[in-house]
Write a structure and sequence with these properties.
Layout: H1 2-10, H2 18-28, E1 52-56, E2 59-62, E3 67-70, H3 85-95, H4 106-118, E4 124-128, H5 131-146, E5 150-155, E6 167-170, E7 173-179, H6 186-189, E8 192-196, H7 200-210, E9 214-219, H8 235-246, E10 249-253, H9 265-270, E11 276-280, E12 290-294, H10 296-299, H11 318-330, H12 336-358, E13 363-367, E14 370-374, H13 383-386, H14 391-403, E15 406-407, E16 416-417, H15 424-442
Parallel strand pairs: 3-15, 5-8, 5-9, 9-10, 10-11
Antiparallel strand pairs: 1-2, 2-3, 4-12, 6-7, 7-8, 11-12, 13-14, 14-16
Bound molecules: pyridoxal-5'-phosphate.
Amino acid sequence: MIVRTAMKVQQPKPPASQKSEAAFEAAKAVLAGGVNSPVRAFGAVGGTPRFISKAKGAVLIDADGNNYIDYVGSWGPMILGHAEERVAAAASKALGKGWSFGAPTEAETRLAEQIIADIPSIERIRFVNSGTEATMSAIRLARGFTGRDLIVKCEGCYHGHADALLVKGGSGLATFGTPSSAGVPAAATSNTLVVPYNDKDEATRVFAEHGGKIAALLVEPVAGNMGCVPPLEGYLSHLRGLCDQHGALLIFDEVMTGYRVHIGGAQGLYGVCPDLTCLGKIIGGGFPVGAYGGRAEIMAKLSPEGPVYQAGTLSGNPLAMAAGLATVQALHDAGVYEKLEAQSQKLAEGLAAAAAKAGVTVVQNRVGSMMTVFFQQGPVVNWTTAAQSDTDRYARFFHAMLARGVYLPPSQYEAFFVSLAHADEQIEATIEAAREAFAGLVA
Ligand SMILES: *Cc1c(COP(=O)(O)O)cnc(C)c1O
């Protein structure tokens, strides 16, 4: 075993990538940066992004015909695996009936009923087209409902690219945010306060100082966009208490965690209910979708019932609703979350053992089927600690895995996702690849 591993490490076989390279060149001539979402460009790990030609189950196939075991899963939506038959059938059936009417359909009501049955705090919901739209609209609604302007967010949490949320904070303390992107006016972030994640004291302090002006605190209940960072014991209930005490709304951004960590989202897993919840990703089954929902009294403030305006030409699109409903219904099959947990645990343990054997220091964070291997000693509990990771080492690991047919997120700060299509032999092949990849890092 050891001898074989050592031999393989010396002979990493570079997979063919000429077609992806040509495709990337052609894309760069017409698309900004060659991609429609920055992380796809492999900027954080270097090299050429693989252009995907098709996918089935847990496997992606690129333009050069290489197969990869996929742990990105379209960044979360593909929890059943790619091109899953029930979802394909539901979307095809919807397609055959026409695909956009600009008028209400019963498909929207069906998916809404299912989500309301599953996610504890949602009584009414509104569908939009992306997670970005969901958080942007939830903030507007929270401001409209409370009559207050300030928003609190956590450093390292990502809530899409709305101006007010593209902020960076200051060195682990509660501060007013400054724009983290060019093109965002300081005025657009001047009502956004930034606090460190998992820090009860700083959250308490910001509410003590500004409580009467805070409309909402927005948080990823399990952070997934600085790598996977679970909430510390009691953190979410502390935030719930602060919001109650100061008359602010608690908004959970469950765009990633909704149906991922539990059928009831992170709120179902941890037993803490927000006032508003943002959803996306899984609830569209891989089609463009987002949603926000919560207490009926708050949702009643939305146009056309109330004064808070929000609209969408393609919102509640019939294909997205059908694919989303089929996906969510499939997650009600017996044993689904147990299976995700078992496969994810097997993967996590295998990766930890492989790293230990090679003498590579890593720390893993995992909640069910979302996890991150941080190249550092940890613990990773917030952005300051996450940022201490050795991203160059992650990039080398990423490419060593890619060369061995495993497609990991092309950034240290994105979570791996395991799907229901990941079979035992694929998990085992991944661990075997990791043994070689870790060994190669210290060779
Ligand atoms: C992906 C994500 C978003 C943004 O969703 P888009 O559909 O990409 O706009 C927002 N919040 C969280 C927690 C996410 O993971």
